[in-house]
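Morning - pyridoxal-5'-phosphate inputs below, output right after.
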Amino acid sequence: MINVDKIRKDFPILKRTVHGKPLVYFDNAATSQTPQIVIDAIVNYYSNYNSNIHRGVHTLSQEATDKYEEARIKIQRHFNAKNPYEIILTSGTTHSINMVASGFASILKKGDEIIVSALEHHSNIVPWQMLCEKTGAVLKVIPMLKNGSLDMEAYYKLVNKKTKLVFCNHVSNALGTVNPIEKIIEAAHKFDAAVLIDGAQATPHIKPDVQALNVDFYVASAHKLCGPTGVGLLYGKEEWLQKLPPYQGGGEMIATVSFEKTTYAGLPHKFEAGTPNICGGIAFGAAIDYMNAVGFDNIASYEDELLKYGTQELLKIEGLKIYGTTSEKTAVISFNVGEIHPYDIGSILDKLGIAVRTGHHCAQPIMDFYKIPGTVRASFSFYNTKEEIDILINGVKRAVMMLS
Ligand SMILES: *Cc1c(COP(=O)(O)O)cnc(C)c1O
């Protein structure tokens, strides 16, 4: 059970007002808010042991190194990776995807095929297009159905022995659809294709088990699960991380350097050139501890309650249409009212202190599919309440009255 009053006290930002109204923060799918315990971890790092890791013999450097490596182990345990060195700390999902894409440039050959889903975030489309241009591989797309789910029958026909890579998000950021990634992974593995799952939108709600999923790569960003911006992870199966070449050259990623030849460091350092976001990594670990203390089962059941309530109440508004209507959904409601432009609704809601996202949500192909310019997206977190949803409903009604 979630004690939401108690939880809300953990988030200092929830006390602020916007345009004189209490903040109602429903843009959690873009970034989540930060609990005090994570803010404390950041302050503690810069106040007490800020220094570079893995190099110094001095005490501060050793403390920072220990904390950073402890964070890696927290992340490893959370995702149930077999080994800590299969967790590469990156600057976030986009960076992680690009690392894998650039690594595959040396593996793919002309005529090989890459499959992506129609539900992708731009960060999961563009790197593959660039990779195809570079290698002559061909990009195939799993089409979507009207309810916002993937056309799995079409997928089973697309995947074949030319398929080398399959990319799909675990949860769609634009619609909230939870994709059947177990089935996607299993079908790809029949043809020895690797699978990368973008978990940026799933990890705030679901605790993924990368070994049970048998996934080859899984990526996510800390800032969507109560951590800071600028840090995230690339999980890769050891065999794949050994196979891929390093992404960047620099300090930390080498074993020996001479002008004739450089040998690379072992995992994970091979992929962690330069000084990383040390404080961010440590704070990411603190965020994972916080989320686990709240409990992912509690989070999922409470957010589902919010989703059901919000869906039911929003649908009472005349002319309101929700996009993404599968039963397998996280707490994201993407909607439009009649012909009103989503941006206009969003601007009025902001004046009322309500933060929603409007636009194409970095997923233009989905908007093209529905032939709409964008949607208003309200995304809930475990620190939101039904009372806040009521404020949203009244706000939307007011916006509709003003705009129609
Ligand atoms: C947010 C998001 C991304 C991008 O994450 P960054 O932290 O901006 O790199 C990618 N995919 C999905 C599904 C997302 O929700």
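Note: The pocket of pyridoxal-5'-phosphate is lined by residues 92-94, 121, 123-124, 169, 173, 198, 200-201, 221 (CB under 6 Å).

O.
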